[in-house]
Amino acid sequence: MMGVNKVVDNICQLSPDLLTEACQHILIYLQGQTGGVDSAEISERFQRAGVRLDHEALQNMIRFLLLTFRSAGKNRLSGDDLVSRLEEEGHHAWPKGSLKVFHGLWSEHGASVHAQQEVQAALSIGQLVDVQWKLGMAMSSDTCRSLNSPYVSLLLKVVEPSGQMRHRSFEMTVPQFQNFHKQFKEMAAVMETV
Fold this sequence. Notes:
Distance between the termini: 46 Å
Mean pLDDT: 86
């Protein structure tokens, strides 16, 4: 990972409009409104504006902004406090336009980010963002030449509380999958009554 000073230098090169867009992506995620930060979309927007950052530099910028806003939420900082903290850390002489962006966005979204952090801390579980399945047929195994047994393979995409995307996969027999499906239908019925 590149040094913090280089990451801050890259952030300071952004126009206030581009910085606002990048921060909004991150704040929307931190408020629980999306399953993750779409770095490809941010990269595309930067490229259209003529800002060229390699993948690692962009990822480091996103991590820095995530950490900055998470820390501000955890510590219940105001917009003024966030700007003071950025200035005090001495990584860089922040442009006034960048500080104004941080102040304005955090003043507007900080309370929502903190509230979402409280909810996540209480739940401290990942968020399911996608389920993929396929039906397969096991033809044989090392212990049985003619198995001919159907199975269901599931792939779950989960965003951990840390923001990292995890993939979980497992297989079930058809009766196990039918039981799994029945339990999900029961959960859905209960959720509709809430």
